[in-house]
Amino acid sequence: MIPTTMKAMVLTGHGGVDKLEYQEVATPQPAPGEVLVQVTATAKNNTDRKAREGLYPTKKGEMTSFQMGGKPTLLFPRIQGADIAGRVVAVGEGVDESRIGERGLLDFNIYADDRRDINLTPDYYGHGADGGFAEYVALPSDQFHPIPNPELSDAELASMGMCSYQTAYHMVTSANIRAGEYVLVTGASGGVGTALIQLCRIIGAIPYALSKQDKAEALLEMGAEAVLDRSDMGNFVERVKAATGGKPFDAVMDLVGGE
């Protein structure tokens, strides 16, 4: 029995954590072409925080968020949360009822048209539409992908969405990385960096990590071929040659940030 109301963490405006309110709201109903998902895990990432704080201004001194499509889409109240794992509990018109009970993960993009290979006006669930910081969410059926893998917990599944794995995946495919190629991953200990190391190993590329040495053991266990100390760049070229046997890097996955 699907309840008529649900609990949700509702963002009421730009600002601090005081702008997040735990509320009881109406349970969404799946529209034609949609599925109603009971949320079992939702990742929290830095984009959620930055959007809440209004750190994506388009003009100096303006507190707002993404509006690459020409107008702001983060309207209040809003339920954040893009990286949604859960199970289908109801379907809208035109969706096969056999999907009820299906476990899956959301492609969080809000697409401007029917294309699903590119999104030229970037927006996402939890920003331009309600997301997963709630008990239920209505989503496009073709964007909620079945992932039955029993070896993955719901929390692990939710971690494979927005800020880490999808970003890393597009970096790897944009650079056309192939098996046997040498890849340097900067900022390797972060979410995108660790995802890059794992994805390189999956496709047979050889990842080298640039990070602080206190992270070296964990990065080596994750699959890095070697860890280069970013605190000592004086003889970096020589250390790279020693680590790779003199072979150059085919690509550098540079996680640009800070100054």
Describe what you observe in this structure.
The chain has 259 residues and is α/β, with parallel strands linked by helices. Helix content is 21%, strand content 25%. The strands form three sheets. A five-stranded antiparallel β-sheet has the order 7-3-5-6-8. A four-stranded parallel β-sheet has the order 11-10-9-12, sandwiched between helices. The protein has a three-stranded antiparallel β-sheet with strand order 2-1-4, with no helix packed on it. The protein contains six helices and twelve strands. It has two domains: 5-153, Quinone Oxidoreductase, Chain A, domain 1 (Alpha-Beta Complex), CATH 3.90.180.10; 163-253, 3-Layer(aba) Sandwich (Rossmann fold), CATH 3.40.50.
Q: Could you give a short account of the major beta sheet?
A: 5 strands, antiparallel
Identify the CATH class of the largest domain: Alpha Beta
Provide the structure class. alpha/beta
Number of strands: 12
> Over the alpha carbons, how many angstroms does the gyration radius reach?
21 Å
Q: Order of strands across the biggest sheet? A: 7-3-5-6-8
| Unreliable sequence segments | none
The named CATH superfamily of the largest domain: Medium-chain alcohol dehydrogenases, catalytic domain
Strand content: 15-25%
| Count of discrete structural domains | 2
- Tell me, what's the shape? globular
- Count of DSSP helices? 6
Proportion of helical residues: 10-25%
What is the correct CATH architecture of the largest domain? Alpha-Beta Complex
In N-to-C order, the SSE pattern is EEEHEEEEEHHEHEHEHE
Mean pLDDT: 91
Distance between the termini: 52 Å
CATH topology of the largest domain: Quinone Oxidoreductase, Chain A, domain 1
